[in-house]
Amino acid sequence: VAKSELVEEPGCRCDAILNAVGFAAEHFLETSTWRDGMGDVLSRLGQATQVSRSYLFENLVDPSGELRTTQTYEWVAPGITAQIDNPRFQSVPFREPGLDHLPRILGQGEIWYGHTRDFPEAVREILATEQTLSILLVPIFVEQRWWGFLGFDDCVREREWPAVEVDGLKAVGRMLGAAVRRQRVEDALRESEERYRLLADTAEDFINLNDRDGRRLYVSPSFFRATGFTPEEVAATDFRSRVHSEDLG
User: Fold this and answer.
1) What radius of gyration, in Å, describes the C-alpha atoms of the chain?
2) DSSP SS3 for 138
3) Is the model's pLDDT at 244 over the cut of 90?
């Protein structure tokens, strides 16, 4: 597949790209979920690179085990046709002609870029329906697994991709992958804590949790039912010194 060159372009949008990357980093670090404001991140990246579209595709495995991908976020420049509601880009299998090369390239951690005119016919047909003249795709990995990709289309002119721009976009892809992983960990921890609390709340045994400094973190409802103490009393004193065997029946 013929590709345009990654170039060192003197007039590239270096400052704008760096500002957009910084904005993305701040977003992924400070928001409770990476999805909040994802559209703003794509908008900043799209405007900084002066492309026509910037977008995110997320991979999924269907019940049959087939790898598919779905467009979930998009920013478009004024006058450019949006593709976010295009059913062709919803749960589309990678085995389709024009997409079957992407797992081999993006799945190996490589970017994919070039001019539409230089690609095979199946790829040209897809990009022509979007009026895309040049494209760049950046893979996203989560825990060393290919999770999806960021995409950037130019529908106005054929363009080269300065190396500094590509490095910035790849950095955003890495940050997004890290943010997805962090949220997965936090969600799993929250779910585990909720299951434990449900179990503890319904247990008949007394459960008392303290931190390393002895501060009380949790007392099970069974303790209050058996002793008659209130949560306020327990919080205010060392209840263990007030519990006698006759209190526990």
Assistant:
1) 26
2) strand
3) no
